[in-house]
Amino acid sequence: MKLIIDSGSTKAHWVFLEGEDMIYNIETEGFNPYYATEKQIKNIIVSQLSKDLFNYTINEIHFYGTGCSSEKNCNIIQSILKHYFRAGYISVNHDLYAAAVSLLGRDRGIACILGTGSNSCLWDGKKIVNNIPSLGYLLGDEGSATYLGKMLLRKVLRNELDKKLTEDFHDSIKMNIHEIQERIYNYDDGNRWLAGLSVFISENILHPEMEKIVLQNFEDFVKNQLSKYMGYQNEKISFVGSISWFFKPQLLKVMEHYHLNTGVIYRSPMEGLIQYHQKNNR
Questions:
Q1: Interacting residues of 226 by C-beta distance below 8 A, sequence separation 6+
Q2: For residue 242, which phi and psi values (nearest 5 degrees)?
Q3: pLDDT for the residue 282
């Protein structure tokens, strides 16, 4: 049996596979070893997973998670999993690696994450060979929900949007410019709040001004991230994440405009991870 885990800071997805059959599929609270203590992670596992799952004989565990880019954090997760599950093989990798495996498997190409933040990498079929840094939401993150939120706010606060749209926006958040600035700069989750504004864009995507923002978001991603990979025009480029999924028509339009080769587009990496591990051992 194989256990596949895809964990973000908020949510973790657990899938137990027997051959090609899914035996168990559950979501729990997520955990990032940069912020969650070993005790907190263990508490999530014990309190949110059925005790019966600990009795399964598991041959392989494949964990993919936010915050697992350092050897120290990978060792923490591996130690915890080893404590609860009898597994002969445990691998721990970060979320960008998960995206590459999910989207590309053993094929070469560029894997992109377009969710709250953005990231990308060049994958040779076995490993990441190049990564153009997204620089985070303050300096970059083109293509992401956070970047969309910033673009929308700038237009609203500079009175560059349609009057009715601007009124609808203020009705939806019920905050003035000073409260907005305080919400962004004085709270630790300012990036997530900005990302949440993408919901307003999605709800109004039929308005030309909203679609224009989304198209510009993807164009900026192509220009500032994708184009930095040598020979990117000849690579298969695949996407995972809520923004690529919910704004798929606009993403495909931009990709076509730049004559780029679009691969698959997934909302979550787990879909591709299941397919990959059903066919491959280790």
A1: 110, 112, 120, 232, 237, 260
A2: -60, -40
A3: 67
CATH superfamily entry for domain 2-101+270-279? ATPase, nucleotide binding domain (3.30.420.40)
Residue 138: is its pLDDT beyond 80?
no
Nearest to 16 by CA among 48, 59, 79: 59
Contact 102, 96 (CB under 8 A): no
- With beta carbons less than 8 A apart as the criterion, state whether 73 and 67 touch: yes
In Å, how far are 4, 97, 173 from 271, measured between CA atoms? Answer: 11, 14, 34
Tens-place pLDDT, residues 221-254: 999 999 999 999 999 999 999 999 999 999 999 9
Average pLDDT across the chain, whole number: 90
DSSP H/E element including 88 = strand 86-94
Amino acid at 199: V
The reply to whether CATH 3.30.450.20 applies to domain 138-215 is no
175, amino acid identity? M
Cα–Cα distances in Å, from 104 out to 24, 36, 266, 279? 25, 30, 11, 13
Examine the pLDDT at 213 and tell me if it is beyond 80. yes
Higher pLDDT, 188 or 84: 84
Half-sphere exposure for 66 (CA within 13 Å, toward CB): 21
182: helix, strand or coil: helix
As a whole number of angstroms, the distance between CA 230 and CA 105 comes to 21
Tens digits of residue pLDDT in 93-107: 998 999 999 999 999
Residue 204 and residue 228 in contact, taking contact as beta carbons nearer than 8 Å: no
Which tokens in the block code for residue 85? 């599950």
Residue 65, both tokens: 């998670």
Domain extents for the chain? 2-101+270-279, 138-215
Answer whether 0.70 is exceeded by the pTM. Answer: yes
Smallest CA-to-CA distance from 197 within 161, 225, 224, 239 is with 161
